[in-house]
Design a protein that fits this description.
about 190 residues, SH3 type barrels, 3 domains, 5-stranded antiparallel sheet, elongated
Length: about 190
């Protein structure tokens, strides 16, 4: 009987050692699998900014086609109107796309969704602080007009630190403004 217990004891220790090895290998493989799974999941779980969108760069600046445009709380006509925009040509930053809807943001960080038919690629901007419209792109150049904040301008082209703009009031003014004073000239 004592020999049988010793054999059982030896068998039990051998059995325990074999199972410890199996458990160790299993836990190691499981840890590797979970790490790889987490890595793969994090790669595919990045927030998408475009679902069946245009394929164009996001963010980008667009403008309003109409003088009255409804900004909705979601991408569809079934979503309630969140805000009314009442200025044709007003610049907006596209931050996301969903089919034919664009999530946009205003200068004042109001965001919502607008259908693509109501948006234009016509390039406009808003003056952010009081500045001067210059005849040439230089601080030393003559100024043509004083521009006040929230003035809507048409952006013709931008170079380094300056943008050539057009302002239509009673008279048409064409000149240069520093990029840093225009919301909509770059990826503000």
């Amino acid at each position: 009987m004592q020999i049988m217990l010793k054999l059982n004891n030896i068998s039990f220790h051998r059995y325990l050692f074999d199972n410890q090895l199996i458990i160790y290998v299993f836990v190691t493989l499981l840890a590797i699998f979970l790490i790889k799974l987490d890595y793969a999941y994090s790669k595919t779980n990045e927030q998408k900014v475009s679902i069946n969108g245009s394929g164009l760069e996001i963010p980008r600046i667009v403008s309003l086609k109409n003088s009255l445009t409804y900004m909705r709380s979601g991408p569809g006509k079934e979503f309630p109107v969140k805000y009314e925009l009442k200025q044709k040509g007003y610049p907006l930053k596209i931050t996301a796309e969903y089919n034919n809807w664009r999530k946009v943001k205003t200068l004042n960080n109001i965001s919502g969704w607008i259908h693509t038919q109501l948006l234009s690629s016509f390039r406009t901007g808003l003056i952010t602080k009081t500045t001067f419209l210059k005849k040439i792109p230089s601080n030393s150049g003559k100024f043509l007009a004083k521009l006040l904040p929230n003035l809507l301008i048409k952006i013709d082209k931008c170079k380094n630190k300056w943008c050539k703009v057009e302002i239509v009031k009673r008279k048409v003014f064409v000149g240069w403004v520093k990029k840093e004073n225009i919301w909509g000239s770059t990826k503000n």
